[in-house]
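Retro notes - structure team

What went well: the batch runner handled both jobs without manual restarts.
What didn't: labels got mixed up in the shared folder, which is why I'm recording both outputs here explicitly, each with its sequence directly above its tokens.

Job 1
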Amino acid sequence: MPRQRPLCATSLTRAPRAADTACVESRFLIGLRARAADPIVRFPVLVVLYLAAIGLTVATWLGPWYRDGAFWISEVTARSAHLLVGLLSDSLLHGRHVSYDGFTVEIIGECAGIYEVFILASCVLAYPAPMRAKALGVPFGMASIYCFNLLRILCLLLVGRHAPEFFDFFHLYFWQSTLIVLVAGVWFAWIRLFVRR
């Protein structure tokens, strides 16, 4: 049986031809398509693309509304935190400032969990799931992050009042890393509750 030559074989004894270059390009494109179809490659690439799309949309087209919305969300978060702290003790509310027994925090846009919602929404949209599950996943994630954020603010008020030397550690390190774990946990819970039924 004669030895068959591969379709895209090139000879080392002759100069490369245009057909050889096209063959290498087609191999590259086939390999690229195969890698793009691989879920391990596709998911993180889509997350970054969705996150960039959300960020660019917010920054360019929704800029003024986003700033007003972040301010509004911060005020709602401050009011909710004030009501929650009020269950434990007397608290004061002045705009976005919440006071607990003399210790005051200001709730700004970064404290409201907005960026965590952007990350979670990107993960939900990038995951291969039906649109119905994705449509349920974003509000589920928003509500989960909002409730957890209120718990975080309550904890920070308690730590700031009773152990102020630990406030920076909890605010800058503990809760920031916990929010990353929370986003991953809410995403896994969404997959379990809404996608894999």
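Job 2
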Amino acid sequence: MLNITNATALYIDIFVILHITNIGGEKMSKILGKIILASFSVIALVILTTAVSAGYTGSAGLTISGTTEVSFTTASANWGGGYVTVGGTTCTLDTENTTTGCTNFTAVNAPLVIENIGSRDVILELASNKDVATFIGGTGSTFKWKMTDGEPSSCTGITPVGYANVNTTSPGTQVCSSFDATDGSDTLEVDLQIVIPSDATAAAKTATITATATAIA
């Protein structure tokens, strides 16, 4: 802002000049009145100009948090009901359309699919709540899985790429050392294989597989 002392000085300077010109009486008063008005106009103009030119700044800020989340977009494999073919010793089922030595089971040709739906690359681990003995039982039964990229370059350090026994120890088997969050390269396929022996107990069989994602720092 303009200092008011400077503004007063501006008015006084104009008044002295008028006084020296020795203009008489009434005419002097009229002129002086106009000059006074002019003085106030100059002062107001200078104050306004000074205030605008001072300038102020604003700011905008925010924090974007990354998300860590995976989801089973294909969450189940169900072969229905069946049994080991009479006279056989085992029935082999998998999610690659195999039903060898089996009767009445329905072929499944679709793996479980996990998608990284978060915004961060993650370490991915899988665990089953049941091992082969508690899931299938009998002599010579197996319960295995293997991993495949659902989309190119989705999973770095992918394992196992061949069928291997499921893990029941939390948080499970590390199947991806880096599971990509980029759309178009963020899915993992989990194929399952089950071997049912002829002495397995007849019952409905269910196992749950849990995926755990840990953000990569």
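One thing worth noting from job 2: The first strand starts at residue 70 and ends at 74.
We'll revisit the folder naming next retro.
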